[in-house]
Design brief:
Helix content: 25-40%
CATH architecture of the largest domain: Alpha-Beta Barrel
Order of helices and strands: EHEHEHEHEHEHEHEEHEEEEEEHE
Radius of gyration: 22 Å
Low-confidence stretches: none
Shape: elongated
Largest sheet: 8 strands, mixed
Number of domains: 2
């Protein structure tokens, strides 16, 4: 198949998905499996579905289109662009929203296609990414009530992704109080209360999740670690995706044995690469070359040899997106 290459271990991904889904379900929480890190590859996505996960979420409509044949509720987790309203209505069952103009566009598109589009309203809780402020809630709820082709089925919030706000019991309690306020204004119970992502996993069994009944989980499934503190999830694999790259130069430079691999910043986030040979040190990278130090390795490497890496989340995202990196799925 050639190199560079990412080897995807489907058995380990399914194991991780099953473990995390069960862990969440044991506390009354459903899982939305996030597929963006592997571009919603249909085979990998089906693995998540087979593990019992209740929803699939992705940030890009193009990815959801690839899995429209898979029978599971699909959620657009990046707030939509008005220009893609038609595709959002046709290709996702639910979308996360924070702008009334966008919700109105979704309503118009839904009316045109004789559909009811479900939405989750995102609430700002300090991470300063998407989400409406508390003082906007009543006004936006009143406007949503007038939209005949929009069904507000849930409320969500985000932690850790941008502002570095780590969830805790107090933040979940405050979020639950806002949910109660919204439900009181709507005079109905909401179906989905999505209280964060992989960074909330470490709180299961330790704090009261209040009204939260859903988590959006991506990294913990694909890499076996939570994102609040980067700790391993008990019972999960971290070597689900292995990057392989070939040595194209091997020379003694600056008193160290250095190798260049046919891989660069255009392909991966080199700072998020973890060599399986722990004695190897990643020195740096240019757009097309990765430089590593082999001085402390007991393995004798040569030109054409392959170096294996585990990948951090952003390296995985970039690597799976790169057309220059081949992908091999194994069972």
């Amino acid at each position: 198949m050639g190199y560079p290459k990412i080897i995807v271990n489907l058995k380990k991904i399914k194991h991780n998905a099953f473990i995390i889904n069960k862990k969440c379900n044991d506390y009354g929480i459903s899982v939305m499996g996030i597929t963006k890190s592997f571009l919603a590859d249909p085979i990998i996505t089906q693995i998540l579905v087979d593990s019992g996960i209740e929803f699939i979420g992705d940030s890009r409509i193009e990815n959801l289109k690839k899995i429209e044949h898979i029978k599971i509720p699909k959620v657009l987790i990046r707030i939509p662009m008005i220009s893609e309203a038609k595709d959002v209505v046709l290709l996702s069952d639910i979308s996360l929203n924070s702008e009334i103009k966008t919700i109105e566009a979704l309503n118009s598109s839904s009316k045109l296609h004789n559909k009811i589009h479900k939405i989750i309203l995102m609430i700002e809780m300090g991470d300063f990414r998407e989400g409406i402020l508390f003082n906007e809630i009543e006004n936006i709820l009143e406007k949503i009530k007038t939209l005949k082709h929009i069904d507000l089925i849930g409320v969500g919030t985000n932690f850790t992704c941008y502002g570095g706000i780590i969830p805790d019991g107090n933040k979940l309690k405050k979020f639950s109080e806002i949910v109660s306020f919204i439900e009181n204004k709507l005079q109905k119970n909401l179906k989905i209360i999505s209280g964060g992502n992989s960074s909330s996993l470490h709180l299961l069994g330790k704090v009261d999740f209040g009204k939260v009944n859903n988590l959006r989980i991506g990294e913990a499934i694909v890499l076996g670690q939570e994102t609040a503190f980067g700790q391993k999830v008990k019972g999960c694999f971290q070597d689900t995706f292995i990057l392989q790259a070939e040595i194209i130069e091997l020379k003694l430079k600056e008193n160290s044995l250095r190798a260049i691999l046919a891989l660069g910043k255009q392909d991966v986030d080199y700072e998020a690469l973890i060599p399986l040979d722990s004695s190897i040190k990643v020195i740096g990278a240019s757009s097309d070359h990765l430089i590593i130090d082999l001085s402390n390795s007991t393995t004798i490497y040569d030109i054409g040899d392959i170096i294996n890496f585990r990948m951090g989340y952003f390296s995985l995202l970039r690597g799976m997106t790169s057309p220059y990196i081949k992908k091999e799925l194994i069972y």
